[in-house]
Amino acid sequence: MAKDEKQPSAEAAPEPRSVRVVILALMIAMLLAMLDNMIVGTAMPTIVGELGGLEHLSWVVTAYTLATAASTPIWGKLGDMYGRKGAFLTAIVIFLIGSVLSGMAQDMGQLIGFRAIQGLGAGGLMVGVMAIIGDLVPPRERGKYQGMMAAVMAVAMIGGPLVGGTITDHLGWRWSFYINLPLGAVALAMVTTVLHLPKKRTDARIDYLGAVLLTVGITAIVLVTTWGGTEYAWDSAVIMELIAIGVASLTGFVFSQTRVPEPIMPLHIFRSRNFTLMSVIGFLAGFVMFGAVLFLPLYQQSVQGASATNSGLLLLPMLLSMLVVSMIAGRVTTSTGKYRIFPIIGGGLMMAGLFLLSTMDTGTSRLTSGLYMAVLGAGMGFLMQITMLVAQNSVELKDMGVASSGATLFRTLGSSFGVAIMGALFTGRVQDEMAARGGSQITQGSAQLDAASLAKLPDQVREAYEFAVASGTHAAFLLGAAVAVIGFVAAFFVKEVPLRGAGPAPEDAPSGTPEKVTETV
Questions:
Q1: Of 304, 460, 461, 493, which has the fewest Cβ atoms less than 10 A away?
Q2: 139: which residues sit within 8 A by CB, 6+ positions away?
Q3: What burial class does residue 206 get, using C-beta atoms within 10 Å of its C-beta: 0-12 exposed, 13-18 middle, 19+ buried?
Q4: In 3D, which of 216, 207, 223, 206 has the Cα closest to residue 250?
């Protein structure tokens, strides 16, 4: 084996305390990437009030999402080729530069452009976290850190809107971007001083053609899911053209990956049954989770009369359940080395939770909906980190970066499709129900009304809207349950491949040589 392809754990051999400090720094960086959109979302009304440009509001989020998705695979490959530490530190710096520039924006056009810079950095943050953990911690031991990752996700979803509102009210909206600087500085300092990974040097050239084709393809897909049914009709010329561009670009990308020495996403990683299955399950988990995060607060605010101020707290039953289950699954995986049962249980619970949520109507109590959310959260807890763990364990160590970026990309694309398709179904159902009850003028242009608008409606119209939202939620979650069936079935085909680090190496295996774990389909 070449010198630069040795086991990172053997080369770096970090002390346990150093690993814990590095993991803490990585969790801070992960929090940066996840917290940003939550905080900024709360500040958007104030931003629009000062900068104007309401018609371009959606692009503040879309630009960030596009840049994150498009850059994710490229960051993973750069880490594999030139070393993860340098790539990760560069991603943090780019993210912080984008944060400073966004806070200094003087108009909506500048803000959109600077958010794209932020998104470029964010793409490297998530991939860097997962790949570095994959380098430092053997898969068998990685389960111990699953709870930390789930906790970061819960903190971001619950605390983001609260922090965003507080910062905007007391410091101004610009500080919703500047708040990233102290967190980023801490992560930079800790990673620079404590993280020690082998430096890599390679004469291979970056696959620029593949990077361009993949970027164009992902951009087209995200724009289709963002604009379809909102900015443009699904059968409009613009959407059809974007679909054609996306299909052509991704087809060209797949073809190009078989012709270059250092492809952005080596196709051989998909020969692993487990990696392919984890990509599918990760896509479906992203589809379901972000759809749930969007529609559950909307249902509880519109139908159950909950306050919009603490919208993150509305997800507490789901997030706490996900956190606890993720920690338990991680500990069991570490102690036993077994994991195949978790995607199966997770897929079943996710399917059951979504079906239960689809039964909610105008008379469903908060306790009942909270229990349904807990079932869904438990399913997500079994899936969210296990998918990354198995994906990383399914490839050779030299492909850790592209495996991490591939799994992250599929989850990101799943969330984009989930929000778009479930959103289109929800909006169509709400508008149809309101039209049937003579209140279509209330929901023209949007199927979502804020609390202030709801309070001003006559009782009869408000009741009709509550019924329409419940009906839309039913349709969206029923679709989610149908999609979850695919993930549940896919989980049965996962093969129990021993986790690296799971017990002593075979007696005839050379010392320090990683076993080959790739299983062909």
A1: 460
A2: 389, 392, 393, 499, 500, 501, 502
A3: middle
A4: 216
- List the one residue out of 321, 17, 502, 496 whose CA is nearest residue 329: 321
Cα–Cα distance measured from residue 443 to residue 431, given in angstroms and rounded to the nearest whole number:
6
Tokens for 240, please give them: 């059809």
**Greater model confidence, 180 or 172:** 180
Spell 120-157 as b/e; 16+ CB within 10 A means b: bbbbbbbbbbbbbbbbbbbbbbbbbbbbbbbbbbbbbb
Per residue in 41-96, pLDDT (tens digit) is 667 667 777 776 665 666 777 788 778 888 888 888 888 777 788 888 899 999 99
Tokens (6 digits) for 478: 């029923």
Which two tokens mark 401? 């970066």
Q: Which two tokens stand for residue 144?
A: 């111990």
- According to DSSP, residue 415 is labeled H
Q: What is the pLDDT of residue 97?
A: 93
What φ, ψ does residue 232 adopt, rounded to 5°? -135, 150
Helix (H, G, I), strand (E, B) or coil at 52: coil
d(CA 378, CA 348): 10
Long-range contacts of 322-325 (CB under 8 A, 24+ apart): 322/150, 322/153, 322/154, 322/377, 322/378, 322/380, 322/381, 322/384, 323/147, 323/150, 323/151, 323/154, 323/381, 324/381, 325/377, 325/378, 325/381, 325/382
Q: Within 10 Å of residue 7's Cβ, how many Cβ atoms?
A: 17
Q: How many residues does the chain have?
A: 521
Distance in angstroms between the alpha carbons of the first and the last residue of the chain = 25
Contact 146, 50 (CB under 8 A): no
- What pTM was computed for the model? 0.75
Judge whether 107 and 52 are in contact, CB under 8 Å. Answer: yes
Render pLDDT for 7-25 as a digit per residue (tens, 0 to 9).
444 334 444 566 777 888 8
What are the residues whose beta carbons fall under 8 Å from the beta carbon of 173, sequence distance 6 or more?
Answer: 43, 46, 47, 50, 167
pLDDT digits (tens, 9 = 90+) for 382-432: 887 788 788 878 877 777 777 878 888 888 888 878 877 887 788 778 777
Cβ distance 378 to 501 under 8 Å? no
Instruction: Name the token pair of 43.
Output: 């500040």
